[in-house]
Structures are given as C-alpha cells and as structure tokens.
Design brief:
Shape: globular
Number of helices: 13
Distance between the termini: 33 Å
Helix content: 25-40%
Number of strands: 19
C-alpha cells in the first residue's frame, strides 16, 4: 500500500497499526473481517485515489459509510475498505428546503443540521444509522407515510465511478444512474454526497406504548384495520419484543414479553391524540404510555442506547401486503420463543406516499406493500450467536408464506442468495443490471447486495 498512503489526506490504516483493531470493528459483532487496508477518506480526491488503487491492484473493495450494515458489507477480508466516516458535512439551504449531505454522515448528523431550520428528511429510527446505506436501499421511518421513502426525496448524488471518474446524477445528468441509486444499493459507484428535499418537521408527539403480549392478537388486528384510515402525519410501527431488564423501564415488567406501538405524529399533542384515538380506544389499558411532545431528533435517537455497536445480530426481512389472522397467529407463536430480551419483530408501514410513486420510477420495486418487516435476533453475548440466528430463521420460515416475494435490502443478510435479490427488485432487476453494466462493467463494487452486470 506504499503507493496509496502518501496521496491520502485522510490516512491509511494497515495491519500492525495501533488503530487497526478498532478500525476493523463492525456494528454486527457476529462478523469479523480483516482488510489489507482501510482508507480513511477526507474528501472526494481521497475517494478517487482509493478507487483507482483498488481497481489497478485488483483488490476487492468495500465501501463504509456510517458502518451500520447488518451483514458487515462495509468491510472485506484481504481487500481495501474505502471508509467515508470522516466525510460528515451537512449543508442546509432553508430557501430551497434542501440539504447537501456527505456520505459518511449519520442520521443524527442530518437531523441535527436540519432541525435548526424546522426541517427534516424521511429516514430511519436510529440516529447512528449511516445516511448513505439507508438511502441507497430505500430508507423508511416515521415520516414515510406522509413524505415517502428517503429515496423519494433524493434529488441528486455525486458519485465516483469504477474508472475513477466523478459524475453527478440528477434528472438532467446521468438520470439512469440516479434511478438506480434510488434503491439499488452501492452497486454503481461510491456516492460522496446526496442532495435531499426537506419537509417541515419540528416538534412531534411521539413515544412508545406497551402492552402485555397476551393482548397482541387483538392489538395486531386493530392496528391492521386502523392503518388505512390513519392520518399520514402519523407514523406508527408495531413490535413484538421484550421489556428490557434495565432503566428506564418499570421494574415490575422487566423480562416480560410485550406488544409495542411506537408512534410519531408530526404536529401538536392535541391532534396526535385525536389521530390515535380510534385505535387506542379499542385497546385495553397499556403497561405504560410514554408518548409526549419532543423535538424530532429526540424521537430519532430514542433507541440509540439500546443497540450499541458490537452486539450479535442476525436478521431477516420481508415485504408484507396483508396481515391475515393466520399470519398473526404465526407471528405470535414465534414471538413467544424469543431467545433474548433484545430480539424482536417490527412491522414498519410503507403505505401512503410510498404508494403514490410508480414502481418503475425508482429501483425500489415493492410499491404495493403495506409494511416492511424485520425479524432480528440480537444479544450482546457471542455465545448466543447460534441461538439468535436459529430463532430468526425459524421465525422467518413460519411467516414468509404469508408475505410478498422480496425484502428491504437493508434487512437482508449476505447468505440469502441471488434469487432473493431478484425477487426484491422484481421487474426492475433487468434494468438495474443494464445500468450496472454501463457504470461498473467489471463489477468492481461487488461487496454489497450485488446486482451483476448484464451479459
């Protein structure tokens, strides 16, 4: 790596360096990879240099943004990691309501910068998530029902291609590349910055409401029936989880299985309560209701402390169209077998504004789904890795027959196979492979949920 190190402003980390062991650590502690070098890029020039070096030396290249990837695709054994985590700038234009965001920024960085102007972009539910990885596979969260997926708010991207060239992708330039970036993952180049459309979001009425899981069947049915008529300003996901045995949870519920509704209403408490009343009035009294008025970044970071870097993770996802009574029964049977307090199932709504975009308009194909589901086996103890993996797979096997064909790519591991990826992109897969051939014909960027170049 002697030819690369002198030309990087951000520096190069190699085996034997004091920083190497820490730099190798991944969000998912179940995965351990040892790259030949980690290029800590300070700017676009560093990215260009790293791409050229990796390509010319025939090294496998992994791209790391926020580093929040479940299957550990932000690193690679015996290859080069292009680490963008130092590139975290966010510039907000309040006049056009847009934000230019560097590819190493986290969701927390973005929320902090935009909140000062009473603005936000639809994104995920944990502020440590990287903006780049979240965006490139679609992005959904509390604002999605009203304002769409993260990619539906992506106006432009700057990209370093496999040949080392730098291009901008928007509706006027390289529009095919912009189309592919809106859901097609990191297959087409190294995105160095994103331009997002922002929306008016400031104070929200938000928080969790938890019930004994013995009420989950009734709650899931009421939630299913309520969602189509719920105001789009209300983002509300359902979870089958366990009350953690720690503060701030009430001690009398520690370790007990619960059914959770996590809500975020973009507006006043009075309107939020009115929006939720048709649902909550049909349900029994909860164990606790912690909803309140708070800044939007507060709800976005509410779960950060529960899911620190380095725990054991294994997850599977599906797109869900309908939630039948039989499917609910299957969920409850599996949720009663959770192997750890952190293990969970979430149903995130992707209706409303998501359905008003045609499936051919972006690479994200599943515009007719109602939910994006994730089943996640999680535990801090490495000895539990096998148990959480087995539970997740068994749960998914039990409910998948009720679901649609594909899944949100950010909820997929790297052992699910090409057929699963093709099901995720459906009719868009062929077009994606053509764009891949145009911009990365040799499949240099393949450490990802990989779309191979067209023959």
């Amino acid at each position: 790596m002697t030819n690369l190190k002198p030309i990087l402003r951000g520096g190069l980390i190699e085996p034997g360096d004091a920083a190497y062991a820490d730099a190798c650590k991944l969000y998912n502690g179940m995965i351990d990879k040892r790259p030949l070098a980690i290029a800590r890029c300070a700017d676009v020039a560093d990215v260009i240099a790293a791409v050229n070096f990796g390509r010319d030396n025939r090294l496998p290249i992994a791209i790391r943004g926020g580093g929040h990837n479940g299957p550990g695709l932000g690193s690679v054994n015996d290859g080069l990691v292009i680490d963008l985590s130092s590139m975290r700038g966010v510039r907000v234009d309040p006049t056009t309501r847009t934000a230019r965001v560097e590819a190493g920024a986290t969701q927390g960085d973005l929320d902090h910068a935009t909140h000062a102007f009473g603005l936000a972009v639809p994104a995920g539910i944990i502020s440590t998530t990287g903006v780049a990885g979240l965006t490139l596979s679609g992005g959904h969260g509390y604002l999605t029902r009203k304002y769409g997926l993260t990619i539906d708010n992506l106006l432009e991207a700057d990209v370093v291609l496999a040949d080392g060239s730098f291009v901008t992708a928007n509706k006027a330039e390289n529009s095919d590349l912009l189309w592919a970036l809106r859901g097609g993952g990191g297959n087409f180049g190294v995105v160095t910055s994103f331009l997002f459309q922002l929306h008016r979001v400031s104070q929200v009425f938000a928080g969790p409401i938890a019930w004994d899981q013995k009420h989950a069947r009734a709650i899931m049915k009421q939630y299913r029936d309520f969602l189509p008529s719920a105001p789009e300003d209300l983002g509300i996901f359902l979870g089958l989880k366990t009350v953690l045995s720690c503060e701030p949870f009430p001690k009398e519920y520690w370790g007990k299985r619960m059914c959770l509704l996590m809500s975020c209403y973009n507006g006043s408490e009075a309107r939020g309560r009115q929006a939720l009343a048709p649902l909550l009035d049909q349900l029994p009294d909860p164990w606790f209701n912690w909803m309140g008025t708070m800044p939007y970044p507060a709800v976005q970071s509410m779960f950060d402390g529960l899911y620190p870097k380095g725990m054991q993770w294994y997850w599977r996802g599906d797109f869900v169209g309908t939630l039948s009574d039989a499917a609910i029964d299957a969920h409850l049977e599996q949720a009663a077998k959770t192997p750890s307090e952190l293990s969970l199932m979430h149903l995130y709504p992707i209706d409303g504004a998501v359905h008003r975009v045609d499936r051919a308009d972006t690479a994200w194909n599943c515009r007719d789904a109602t939910w994006s589901m994730v089943i996640a086996g999680i535990d801090p103890d490495a000895a539990k890795a096998g148990a959480v993996t087995q539970w997740t797979k068994a749960y998914w096997d039990a409910v998948h027959p009720f679901d649609l064909g594909g899944a949100y790519p950010n909820f997929m591991m790297d052992d699910e196979g090409d057929a699963r990826l093709r099901a995720t992109y459906g009719d868009n897969y062929g077009r994606l492979s053509v764009v891949k051939k145009k911009y990365d014909p040799m499949n240099l960027f393949r450490i990802n949920q990989n779309i191979k170049p067209a023959a």
